[in-house]
Amino acid sequence: MRSSAIIVAAAATLAGLASASPAHKFDKHATHIAYTYPNGTFTKPFDVVTNGKAQQLPSNNIVSEVFVAPPFDGRRYVLTSCSFQAPSNKSLGAVSIRKPTTVPVNPPAAIGYVTCNSN
């Protein structure tokens, strides 16, 4: 009997802690971008505001691949389209993704601006 009372008290304490902790918040408005250079090095992911204007996000060097992770709404990734421009604002192409993906930049080029949009 005594052990069941301890278990009930422990369960009540754990339930109280779980309800007191804040819920995890997912960023519904950011796409994450990281650059990979031809020598195999890469950058930390940058946050790109989704459904905003072109964001200046210079690669500072020639890029061979771009890692793109679309926004996550707590249940699934959101279909997102990103376009990339050179520092001169010349288009380098666009990609539509529904899950984190590495996209080749062909031919490799410097990136100056990124624009991402989703539904």
What does this structure look like?
With 119 residues, the chain is an alpha+beta fold. The protein has a single domain, classed as Jelly Rolls (Sandwich). Helices cover 16% and strands 42% of the residues. The protein has one helix at residues 2-20, and strands at 30-36, 46-49, 55-56, 62-69, 80-85, 91-97, 101-110, 113-118. The chain has a four-stranded antiparallel β-sheet with strand order 2-1-4-7, with no helix packed on it. A four-stranded antiparallel β-sheet has the order 3-8-5-6, with no helix packed on it. The longest helix has 19 residues, at 2-20. The protein is globular and about 35 Å long. It starts with a helix and ends with a strand. Residues 1-20 form the signal peptide. It comes from Trichoderma asperellum (strain ATCC 204424 / CBS 433.97 / NBRC 101777). This is Ubiquitin 3 binding protein But2 C-terminal domain-containing protein.
